[in-house]
Amino acid sequence: MPLKAILPHTYTHLTGEDRRRESIFKEKNCLEAELRSRLRRKKSKISNMSKRGILERLAEGVVIGDGGFVFALEKRGYVKAGPWTPEATVEHPEAVRQLHREFLRAGSDVMQTFTFYASDDKLDNRGNEAASKHSGAKINQAACEIAREVANEGDALVAGGICQTPSYLSGKTKAEVQQEFRKQLDVFIKNDVDFMICEYFEHVEEAEWAVEVCKEMGKPIAANLCIGPEGDMHGISTGECAVRLAKCGADIVGVNCHFDPFVSLEAIRLMKEALDKEGLKPYLMCQPLAYHTPDCNKQGFIDLPEFPFALEPRLSTRFDMHKYARQAYDLGVRYIGGCCGFEPYHIRAVAEELAEERGCKPKGSEKHGVWGSELRMHTKPWVRARARRNYWESLNPASGRPYCASMSKPAAWGITQGHKHLTQHTEATTTDELSELYSFKS
Ligand SMILES: [Zn+2]
């Protein structure tokens, strides 16, 4: 075939025969593109159908979750701290996609849609323009597409995610709060997510409202509160919270965010105790912070003076995560992941610790010898001597900060649902409002 026929657009003077060929060429290309797209959709459908569901996976073994998207993407310049909303799904889809890919490579079995705080009332709270610029529906839709795309690059499932709303904290009615959830759920239903995660609820009541709405979808539901061993912000005990979540229909119950892995596991232990007493057997789930928080009160790391911009000295090492994964597994937790501060290498450590139980190592381990074995190749002999488990397992890392206090004093303002300073409003925070906060005493 002459070159002219293959690349007709490179010629300015086309003959009738050229035009005819060009039209056939375009038509053929369109048809091929459509066929490719149909094939992709069919393949995606088949691969979704052939994937085992979340409850089957939990029944057979351990499921590894992902890490914290808002914190990781804030540090990389794609999320604004303060609102912590996920409009990056529309503005910088490549950044969201890359983080999903890194978690998948690290061993995550679930791609949770980046829809944290993506309810309409949060997207236009206190001067946030995410709603007016993009709309909640568009942000949630983009999140679903990215999560599914990456999940299909491996054997991962897609979980739709919803969390607490400013409407609830402002004291709005159950119907109004559930309406906020429903708008997000419409998108998750359309995209046929594999299951739902209701997470980051400070009050079990709002989590129950969320689970109730998710039940209408007919998909498995995980429900996580962001609480520690002291219970929810209304004073309901941690054990009672778990019982209520299981009774309202959550298949998987646990905690996420706000506390470190070990404080979170203490909360799970209380949940398990109460569930056992009631004869309830939901799967247990834990997705804690990667920051050490032994000094937190009931409100968790939000109350720490270092929140959110100076938490780095508290960051867990990969070896802390080995310990966390083992303790979680031994406690009976079968959905083990992370939240704020958890980077892909933390998840890789969880996957490596549980490699025997899972029967495989993550792809990300290709460049990582467990317990420092790759250090055998190091030039310096004293570093080569660290190529062993015992060295890293017993290490007590220095904070690196002279005169650094070992604990902080939490803010402890004692403000929760219904307080005027928690009220949702679309206008930006004024200087007068801020001044009032500077001198606030609860
Ligand atoms: Zn978090």
UniProtKB/TrEMBL annotation:
Keyword terms of this UniProt record: Metal-binding, Methyltransferase, Transferase, Zinc
GO cellular component: cytosol
Residues given in the record as Zn(2+) binding sites: 257, 339-340
Pathway in which the depicted protein is active: Amino-acid biosynthesis; L-methionine biosynthesis via de novo pathway; L-methionine from L-homocysteine (BhmT route): step 1/1
Cofactor(s) recorded in Swiss-Prot or TrEMBL: Zn(2+)
UniProt keyword Methyltransferase present: yes
Domain Hcy-binding: 51-354
GO MF terms, alphabetically ordered: betaine-homocysteine S-methyltransferase activity; zinc ion binding
Cofactor binding note from Swiss-Prot or TrEMBL: Binds 1 zinc ion per subunit.
Biological process (GO), any one: methylation
Protein name: Betaine--homocysteine S-methyltransferase 1
Gene that this polypeptide is encoded by: LOC106166449
